[in-house]
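seq as requested:
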Amino acid sequence: MIDAGPSNANPTLFTIIGDRINPGFKSTKALLDAGDMAGVQALAKRQVDAGAAALDFTIGPRAKDDPQFLVEVIRAVQAAVSAAICFDYPEHAVQEVCLKAYDAERARGAKPIINSMAETRWNMVELLSIRPCRVILMASERLEDGIGKPNKTAAEIAGTAKRATLRLVREHGLVLDDIIIDVSISALIADTTGMNREALAAIGLIGSDPELAGLHISGGLSNIAQQLPPKAADGSDLKLQLECAFLTLGRALGMDTVLATPWRGLHMLPEDNYVLGVFKQVLQASGTDALRQVRKLYRK
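struct tokens:
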């Protein structure tokens, strides 16, 4: 099931931010390269019709060189759908163009979402003066003694999330409902250090912290199955099943939002699901043992 509204009340419901307006998808790149606004609008509408509550949005590097085209695409999308737009740019100047072009009335009053704010890019909080916004806050990196460092443990991820969240609330007037914490999901085939295990543990720490009750926790599910075969050992769609496996475990811990393709058919998996069972084994392993466990996903 997909829910476009608050999703903490029911452990089977979650909110999808559609990920397809991104030139990383060949079909989307073709639309953008051709300036096919009708095609982009159809893509936006398809995502909303499939259950997306908001649309992640990037046209790639062209946004910096051609702000007029950037604005044209934003307005085309908003003319087609009333969903909020999640502007996926780390550059302050590009975000400024996006936020000024955004029409909240066309989104039925919904705030735009700034993606991606981080403790290491704290100057992005200046964007909050342009208009009321929600933010996706990256918890994968922290600022320590003025130096950016990657977070490798659940405690580091959750600590950064809490510190930055409370600062946004206390110093910049956001409410917890406006904050979405992104815990980075790693490609399973290369995860020899247990980063997905730590990400899930961090979701549990954040989701159970009473001071953070009301915020949202998200992750990019499509990362997890990169470079893996299409079919699992039981004949099922391996990539979809892996995305669902992470979602099933993460949702139970407090993850209520995903960046994903809405029509993928994401759902909770039963306990006896083959891929979910192997995924749990992978999460307990490290090093070459983790890689051996991963092979069980697609080899009998």
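The chain has one domain: 15-295.
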